[in-house]
Amino acid sequence: MIRVTSYLQGNWVDSGNYSELISAVTGEPVAVFHEAELDYGATCRYAKEVGGPVIRNLTIHERAFKIKFLAQYLLERKEKYYEISTHTGATRRDSWIDIEGGILTAFGISSQARRNLSDLPWHVEGPEVTLSRKGTFTGQHICVPRRGVSVQINAFNFPVWGMLEKLAPAFIAGLPSIIKPSPLGSYLAFEVFRDIVESKILPEGSVQFIAANVPGDLFDHLTSQDSVAFTGSAATGSKLKAHPSIIKNNVHFNLEADSLNCSILGEDVTPDMEEFDLFIKEVANEMTVKTGQKCTAIRRTIVPKNCLDEVIDALKNRLEKNVTGDPSLKETRMGPLASIEQADRFEEQFQKLSEITESVYAASNLNGAYSGARLLVCHKPVELDEVHIIEAFGPLTTIMPYNSVDEAIEIANMADGSLVGSLFTADDTIAAKVVMNCAPYHGRFMVINRHSAAESTGHGSPIASLVHGGPGRAGAGEELGGYRAVLHNMQRVALQGSPTTLRNITKQHIKGAETEESAIHPFKKYYEDIRIGEALTTGKRTVTEKDVEDFAGLTGDHFYAHTDPDAAARSIFGKIVAHGYFVLSATAGLFVHPDEGPVLLNYGLEDLRFTAPVFPGDTIQAKLIVKRKTRRQQRETDKHPYGMVWFAVEVTNQENTLVAEYTILTLVKRKEKLEIDR
């Protein structure tokens, strides 16, 4: 039997009162929950004084690699988690969303952070902002780790996903985490957390775990440098967000609350269309996956009034085929609710909705925590506010007929904020109208037709690369979103100063900063030897009329401004001008070193701008400046360990006028392997 205990200040705490956690399937004890008297002040100090400094000493990429390695470690142990997950009432399909979905989310955030964020302890965000005429006073945004702790309070329905989707970005952002799962299903979260500790991949003090029903005086110890990430009911989230310490200290609070999400069947869709079948399948699926216990489930099904009966019949036929029972059996499509208490709460809310709606389908209930799927119809959804407020957290949806697209939009928005809405239509004109009018009220909006359905991830699936959250009732929070998940946990700072000073602070080249000419061509240097701000000023090249003619012939680009003197005279240039891409190519010829060396290849080109024309007779010169660097992991197929180096390129003419600027990306050999190459 699993013993769920707290892990604080480097120790497991198994003293205090204990209670039994009951399997939703068998009704028998599956774990023992130890709830001790905990010193939350010491817990916060330990995170900030022991974990925080070690994490912040790592670069964002080093932190992201640790999350990647941790995800690999957990994935190797997934079958153990699947076995435990059954007791929460989850089928194999349900558990995949929670277990592998959570692990893959950690993978995804790690990958996005390494692809989009700086390989520094902080992130240099966006281009510099010139604040003065001569360019001596500049602004630069950076995102830095806060000097606090991330308190993560997770709901019962996704013990693994909820934990990992918060832990991963907080750690990559440089924040230690204090994790508090819901006691219901905490035995699964605990088992994964225990493996996190035993892996020793994350530094000591970076993660702690609270086994408690109510987190005592934890919030009393939080400051403006701390953050709280909460997932659960809107009522509980609002209560926590209103805690005096949260308000007094302006603690960062991200609330992701259960909401009455909707799905709309377009008025263009008829029962004989593929989109109709896709809609029915999606609604039924969202009712039964996790037994409807998802914050993103479809609670309101909005359909054209003229096909209400067809929708009801189709949903009933599909739900009749749903097999409810022991989630460990392959044929089972829906298990029990998470507990008898949860089943009772679901029944209570269902009864409230039944008083103002018509019940058109109710599958037979089984004993204990089991509950059958339910269908309700609200014939006056615009007039009855209760159907947009009362949420039965289980296998239920309320069907709401509409008379026009405008009315469908009105109904969809009446819940005053949801995590996700969806629309099934074959008419993009309808799609555009619905989306643009619903968007302010929904955190995510999915539009499905026959062309996208086969690869759709579904209405109820948050995606690591897309933001998750929503306005109003949904909590007004935002999480996930790829690399944005990390930035949500950091402090954005606007720096001001001279370009050179800001470069020396941020450790990334800023346009206008002083440079130092390299004694050795940068392309002859290994990754470790290349320094930010060092530069190479090239020789010069005079552009001739023949250059322009030859380039036109070579490329087939005979645009009149390059080849027709009469037309060129009438152009904005007033005469023949060299191709911009000739300038780009000629510049490469000026700075590229021809000999074999550490540079492996040109990886790409970014932010190209042709800022002034180059005419035959003009002389161009380039300056190559080391802008930033990132270490990359050596894969099995890579012959050498390497890193990426960004070079800023500035091209000027004989009057020192900037004619082109851009950034080139190069892969450069590293001298030796690092921990990231394991």
Short précis:
This protein has 678 residues and is α/β, with parallel strands linked by helices. The chain is 31% helix and 26% strand.
Tell me what the structure shows.
The protein is α/β, with parallel strands linked by helices. The chain folds into three domains: 2-124 and 147-256, Aldehyde Dehydrogenase, Chain A, domain 1 (3-Layer(aba) Sandwich); 261-474, Aldehyde Dehydrogenase, Chain A, domain 2 (3-Layer(aba) Sandwich), CATH 3.40.309; 497-543 and 578-677, Thiol Ester Dehydrase, Chain A. Strands 15-16-17-14-13-18-19 form a seven-stranded mixed beta sheet, with helices on both faces. It has a six-stranded mixed beta sheet with strand order 23-24-26-27-28-25, with helices on one face. Helix 13 (428-438) links the parallel strand 18 and strand 19. Helix 2 (60-75) runs antiparallel to helix 4 (92-116), helix 4 (92-116) packs parallel to helix 5 (161-173) and helix 9 (274-288) packs across helix 10. The longest helix is centred in the N-terminal third of the chain and has 25 residues, at 92-116.
Spell out the key features of this protein.
Aldehyde Dehydrogenase, Chain A, domain 2; 678 residues; seven-stranded mixed sheet; Aldehyde Dehydrogenase, Chain A, domain 1; 31% helix; 3 domains; alpha/beta; 28 strands
